[in-house]
Amino acid sequence: MAIYEEDVAVYDSRRPNEPTYAHSRPTSEPRWVKWTLIGLGVGFMVIIIVLPLLIVFIEALRKGISVYLNSFADRNAQASIRLTLLVAAIAVPLNLIFGVCAAWAVAKYEFWGKSFLTTLIDLPFSISPVVSGMVYVLLFGAQGWFGPLLEAAHIQIIFAVPGIVLATIFVTFPFIARELIPLMQDQGSQDEEAALSLGATGWQTFWRVTLPNVKWGLLYGVLLCNARAMGEFGAVSVLSGKILGKTETMPLYIESLYNGNKFAAAFAVASLLAMLALVTLIIKTVLEFRYGDELAGTRKH
Amino acid sequence: MKPSVIPGFGLTLGYTITYLSLIVLIPLAALLLKSATLPVDRIVKIATAHRTLQALYVSFGSSFIAAIVNVVFGLVVAWVLVRYKFPGRRIMDAIVDLPFALPTAVAGIALSTIYAPNGWIGWFVGPNGPLHLGWTIAYTPSGIVVALIFIGLPFVVRTVQPVLEEFEQELEEAAATLGANRFQTISRVILPRLTPAILTGFALAFARAVGEYGSVIFIASNLPNQSEIAPLLIIIKLEEFDVPSAAVIATIMLILAFAMLLVINLVQTWARRRYGDL
Questions:
Q1: Each residue's pLDDT tens digit, A260-280
Q2: Whether A165 contacts A93, CB under 8 Å
Q3: Any idea which fold A73-294 has?
Q4: In chain B, fewer beta carbons within 10 Å around the N or the C end?
């Protein structure tokens, strides 16, 4: 190893500690170009991404801590937080079970129509959230396929919690599957075959061999799925009916506060979701940094 | 199916297909059927209504401009992150993904507060700002573009960045020894190799922007025929119980989304053939 590293040091013209007199090396840009580009990139990011994040917390705390905390004492605010947690608690586990099944089927076997199946799994990503929500109106709405049937049975899906849950499942559908599929394809099935040949049952193989192999990828997928599930707005907005205190998730509650000119309260609730986004980003970055090899090959969203 | 010793094929594939059908395929089929069973002249009338065409024009036009801006600045951001070391680089790298993680409603109210005439940037570029530019961003069509730039940026950065990281610097050295100056090396050696990633990033950002709803409705004034995006028009039609119109507009958007998906796949196939497996 030592010899190899020395070799690199001799022949590599891109040595990091090279003295700065070589500022016009043929494989780098002049200093002024470099710093102009850094300025442009950082400036753009600050204007487009950092300022909006900052303003959420500034506006939330503008009228002081007590007003901020009081925003959460409101019964409707608490109801929206509970509903958001409930929706994520149903949608994420369902998509987790689906993701594991889909990844197992796609990664461990060869069958006809496999790539078509993975395309279909990715489909919800390319559909507008509003369209994702309205397809359920066509199924379960008063004029929809199952509308009269549901009405006769006194079951309400549209403008009620089940509709919100369905829409959230739809928009977060691919997150876990699309993280696990490439990862399990890369890992192959040798480990599982070894376990089976040593006498393990199918379930033992899954719990003791496959699951430990993909645990970080699984966590990564769950994290992104959860962030989207708690923050979904468009699809949920079509199906919720926006009944204050009953069918408003946090993003919908933020909208009604904002449209009612209750800016401090709107930003207070928004600050909770912004913190969720920050925590998601931090855990995601740590996972990529620590366990980059145990996540799917390419970086994605 | 090829034989395999691993158990569970029937169970996992069966569950996958059932769940996929229940959640995604049957609802989408309901939408397509709803549009397909309408009389043709009704479909044409809805699809060519002035308000529908304007909404599609606003959605696609603003998404196109936003995706172009994102290609330019996304390229700069990816370049800076991969090629240079500077204080704060790590944080900048992590925060590129914020638009993926931040709920769109939060982004929407934050952007409209900043770009409103009395907001930080709205004041700066407005008539009373230090430069007397007299621009208004929020509550105009340019506000829509700003929101779409926000949600689209990570798509360009995250598709270009890995290609740039894997780029063989020997090629640059070869270009330099053959007498190319730095500008020639970048424009003739590096950029052509990045083209597939740039096109994919553009298409992803564009596709996402076309369907975006949450971050846009707060910053746009939502005036019919002027700053009303197609997803909003669908919601308005639903609220008016005009389900056929909503279904037709949604179907148009769905077809265009599939076309985008196809274009992305073609670009990637072309790139694999041209440059090998990137």
A1: 999 999 999 999 999 999 999
A2: no
A3: MetI-like fold (1.10.3720)
A4: N
Which CATH superfamily groups domain B33-275? MetI-like (1.10.3720.10)
Q: Quick check: A53 and B110 CB within 8 A? A: yes
Tokens of B124: 């700066």
Position of tokens 């002027």? B226
Q: Looking up tokens 């990281």, which residue turns up? A: B165
User: Is A30 a residue whose pLDDT tops 90?
Assistant: no
| CA dist list (Å): B72 to A182, B156, B186 | 30, 9, 15
A114 interface with B at CB cutoff 8 Å:
no
Average pLDDT over residues B187-198: 88
pLDDT, residue B259, reads 87
Contact B30 A127 (CB under 8 A): no
pLDDT for A300: 44
Q: Which of B97, B106, B172, B182 to mutate to test the interface with A (most CBs of A within 10 A)?
A: B106
What ipTM score was computed for the predicted complex, to two decimals? 0.89
- A51 CB neighbours in chain B (<8 A) are 114, 120-121
Q: How confident is the model at residue A49 (pLDDT cuts 50, 70, 90)?
A: very high
Contact status of B28 with chain A (Cβ, < 8 Å): yes
Per-residue pLDDT of B73-108, as tens digits, reads: 999 999 999 999 999 899 999 999 999 999 999 999
Please judge whether A105 and B12 are an interchain contact, meaning their C-beta atoms are less than 8 angstroms apart: yes
CA distances from A92 to A23, A81, A133, A214, B196 (A): 52, 16, 17, 17, 34
User: Residue ranges per domain, chain A?
Assistant: 30-61, 73-294
- Give the C-alpha separation, B107 to B213, whole Å: 11
Please state, in angstroms and rounded to a whole number, the distance separating the CA atoms of residues A207 and B42.
55
Q: Is B174 on the interface with A (CB under 8 A)?
A: no
